[in-house]
Design goal:
301 residues; mainly beta; Sortase, Chain: A; two-stranded antiparallel sheet; 3 helices; 10 strands; globular
């Protein structure tokens, strides 16, 4: 808790899938036998008695499963929530450090009702040009649910604060990524680690590229595998690094976004996959290589 206190007291073209719902009209071709049958004399014709079918009336009870119960918040973050009810979690990257060994990125994360509120406010909600690290507002982070891809935004302040050092991954040197490939992102209810999958530069204007604009910030929930593939294919096309980290539909992702200065109106984004249960992150140490075929915006080539 002291570490936290010391550190702080400081989809997209999302597919509009118009599913052509095929309703199979199965015709029933029934052959009618028109051959007349022998008719018995009336007095010998057996009488046909039709009895009503036996019916049993039983009360059918449908038992609805109980609603999920939200887990208790983590005690170590209670004071931050009490200070600011917009607090939803904590971000830390241990491999990017000051000269004294303290991580540069070690901050609380907030989530407001829009993506502009914390652009110029600090954690105490007071005016500050440095802003605060905040989660995309569209899908609220709760103890039971969060977006399939949670995007965190932070300014790249000149003093090195917030997401300035995300730009350290913007290099052809693979030594940093092979050391700082794990991102710790806790919510108020869960501690979790994410392994970096992609680091990429992207423009935010159509005229900055010769392929369709990738609106990564709209890739939130992957309701279909096609939506997931769109996200994954685009982040890997632009990836600064080759990687052995496998990803699949159903994984959860974390995207860190900050302003870049390689070209105007550009963003540098780091995407990481949540570690699966029992997965050892050490298996990825030293496995990242330089991607010489990455796609870049036109003016950054």
């Amino acid at each position: 808790m002291d570490t936290l206190r010391n550190s702080f007291l400081k989809r997209a073209t999302v597919f509009a899938l118009i599913g052509s719902m095929a309703i199979g009209m199965a015709g029933c071709g029934k052959t009618i036998d028109e051959t007349p049958k022998e008719t018995l004399p009336a007095e010998t014709k057996p009488s046909i008695v039709t009895l009503p079918p036996e019916t049993t009336t039983e009360a059918t009870t449908v038992t609805e499963p109980p609603p999920p119960v939200e887990p208790d918040p983590l005690e170590k973050y209670m004071e931050y929530y009490e200070q600011n009810n917009d607090f939803v979690g904590w971000i830390r990257i241990d491999g990017i450090t000051h000269s004294n060994g303290e991580p540069w990125i070690d901050y609380p994360v907030v989530q407001a009702d829009d993506n502009s509120y914390y652009l110029d406010k600090n954690f105490e909600q007071k005016k500050s040009a440095k802003g605060t690290i905040y989660a995309d507002y569209k899908v609220p982070i709760t103890g039971l649910d969060m977006a399939d891809n949670v995007t965190l935004y932070g300014h790249s302040n000149k003093d090195g604060s917030f997401f300035r050092h995300i730009l350290d991954y913007q290099t052809s040197d693979t030594s940093l990524i092979n050391e700082a490939y794990i991102i710790n992102f806790d919510t108020r209810w869960e501690e979790a680690q994410y392994v970096i999958v992609s680091c990429f530069l992207v423009g935010i204007r159509e005229d900055q590229d010769d392929i369709p604009l990738f609106e990564y910030f709209k890739c939130r929930n992957f309701d279909t595998e096609e939506e997931y593939n769109y996200f994954y294919d685009n982040i890997m096309l632009r990836n600064y690094y080759t990687t052995e980290v496998d990803c699949q539909y159903g994984d959860q992702f974390l995207s860190l976004s900050t302003c870049a200065y390689t070209i105007s109106d550009s963003r540098f984004v780091v995407v990481a996959r949540k570690l699966r249960e029992g997965e050892d992150p050490a298996q990825y140490a030293g496995t990242y290589g330089r991607n010489r075929e990455k796609h870049m915006p036109i003016r950054a080539r």
